[in-house]
# Entry
Amino acid sequence: MEPIQLKYEKLRTILKEMGSLLIAFSGGVDSTFLLKVAHDVLQEKVHAITATSPTYPESELREAGELARSIGVAQTVVHSNELEIDGFAENHKERCYFCKKILFQICADKAAGLGYAFIADGSTVDDLGDYRPGRKAAAELQVRSPLLEADLCKEEIRTLSRLLGLPTWNKQPYACLASRFPYGVSITEAKLRQVEACEEFLKELGFQTYRVRYHNETARIEVGEEEICKLQRPESRGRISAFFKSAGFTYVALDLDGYRTGSMNEAFKPEALVG
# Structure
């Protein structure tokens, strides 16, 4: 049996042993795969919970709802506003911890009310290689990470998702819109909508992997390496520049290193991200 198949079977065993669970479901590659396999193993003993907020694009919320329905899992949508959490809008380096602590507490309360044995998230092996303060919140509230427990990485999850017929197998990585801002730069709803509008424009132009990083007057665009040439075409550059400037940016820049997860952490030395 191939290693990836062994990991898949290990995941199914983990889920079966859990018995019932509530999954923090964003509609991304990882949480969709987890929801699908959990439903295959546990059927109605699985519930999805999705938090909508200013940092969660409307397009992602709609897609998460469609995915949950197609898989056959009941979904609860809760409304939250991270901007009201102490320390979040100020964009402290522990921002993700503050947010996840609230989200996982909501999940824990919901799980207790519905009688589910565990709450779970879609963390994977890849999440161990970057600064993830949200992992601390997960540990404090005893959130399980079955994909991580099964030693599955992102590429393996994409491969298995394709084999299971999930439309998310080639979806771009997702992170909340707050991740577009350097630590210490305040986050407001107006800034979030500015970034969201620009990313939706890139999506409409057909880009598959993209981020719009907010640097005050400047928008720094990251796209997949294979799409850099497409963005540099005069017709693309002109349309993108015009739209971004109409959205409120003064300067529009292309990051020549392309898209990579956690690029906002690159300005910090490792020790600066500890504690």
